[in-house]
Write a structure and sequence with these properties.
Blueprint: E1 5-11, E2 40-44, H1 53-56, E3 59-61, E4 81-85, E5 89-93, E6 99-102, E7 108-112, E8 143-150, E9 156-160, H2 166-174, E10 191-195, E11 198-202, E12 229-235, H3 241-255, E13 263-269, H4 276-286, E14 293-295, H5 301-312
Parallel strand pairs: 1-3, 2-4, 9-11, 9-12, 12-13, 13-14
Antiparallel strand pairs: 1-8, 2-7, 5-6, 5-8, 10-11
């Protein structure tokens, strides 16, 4: 199952305690400081595809620092923890809603700092206080509750109601092997394919009321927030193509109106199932909504070639 959101608790390592110790052959303290706790970093990895592991384990902690030793030995610092997430994952601090998005594999984001190590009693000696018998404990590492949100990086986004032909087009263009069938919600997660070096995302079907939690599609609209082109699929079989169009537009608007500013082409799909006159009638209706309308059928290579040409241009 594709997981695109997770909530986890992250903690830096605790600092080690300082040591109380004295030299055996002469007077004076020699307790060393504790080591610092490890830090927690997030970084993007192109080989990580979703956030599943962050639902299986929800607490992550860096290594603790070791306690100081005698003879002024400083405890070893705790190991840093590096958590790998997919490219384009947003890290949200739940306490202050600050967020950062990892858009490349070069950036490491420090999320939680480890605690400082405590001071050994050697640190407290003075000219007048030569035998301190106390040390300090290490500080606790930072702890944060984090939300991880993945937005797929795609060039084109296929949107539309269930059974509008999105998955079939993705399969035809990219050999993505997405399951297709003539019933709603065959697609339960976003699917990706590559066409001429560009990534095409098939977003599960939206339905009326999706913004209020109905259906599946609203969960995946975040994955088209960064695409450069929307391909709005509408089946030629529909008797209510204007309503089909408006349903999808309204649900997207409720989620994020900025998505509607993107370049959009309407794909009138499954045109092999009706007469040419019917296709032209429905194109005429759709052009009142959007002047860019392309009829297409997965069984008509000429229509597919035309669409491919439009996309590559």
């Amino acid at each position: 199952m594709f997981i695109d959101e997770a909530q986890v608790t992250i903690q830096g390592g605790n600092g080690g305690s300082g040591k109380v110790a004295f030299f055996s052959n002469k007077k004076g303290p020699c307790g060393g400081d504790g080591g610092n706790g490890g830090n927690v970093y997030f970084l993007a990895d192109a080989n990580v595809k979703d956030l599943k592991k962050f639902t299986e384990v929800i607490f992550f902690k860096a290594g603790d620092g070791q306690s100081g030793g005698p003879n002024r030995r400083i405890g070893m610092s705790g190991n840093d923890l590096y958590l790998k997430v997919p490219m384009n994952t947003t890290i949200v601090d739940q306490d202050n809603n600050q967020e950062v998005t990892l858009e490349d594999t070069l950036t490491q984001v420090l999320v939680c700092q480890g605690g400082k190590g405590g001071l050994g009693n050697d640190a407290f000696k003075t000219s007048t206080y030569r035998t301190p018998f106390h040390a300090t404990p290490g500080k606790a590492g930072q702890e944060k509750k984090i939300t991880l949100i993945l937005r797929l990086i795609a060039d084109y986004g296929l949107i539309g109601l269930p059974n509008a032909g999105k998955s079939s087009l993705l399969n035809k263009f990219t050999n993505a092997n997405v399951k297709t069938a003539n019933y709603p919600f065959t697609t339960l997660e976003p699917n990706l394919g590559v066409i001429d070096g560009k990534i095409l995302a098939d977003i599960p079907g939206l339905i009326e009321g999706a913004a209020e939690g109905k259906g599946l599609g609203i969960r995946f609209l975040r994955h088209i927030e960064k695409v450069s082109l929307l391909l709005h699929c509408i089946s030629v079989e529909s008797e209510t193509i204007e309503k089909d169009y408006q349903t999808v537009i309204e649900e997207i608007s409720k989620y994020n109106k900025a998505i509607l500013d993107k370049k959009t082409i309407i794909l009138l799909t499954k045109t092999d199932l009706v007469s040419e006159n019917t296709v032209q009638e429905k194109i005429k209706i759709l052009r009142k909504l959007n002047h860019d309308v392309i009829p297409v059928s997965i069984y008509n290579e000429e229509s597919l070639d035309h669409l491919r040409k439009v996309l590559t241009e």
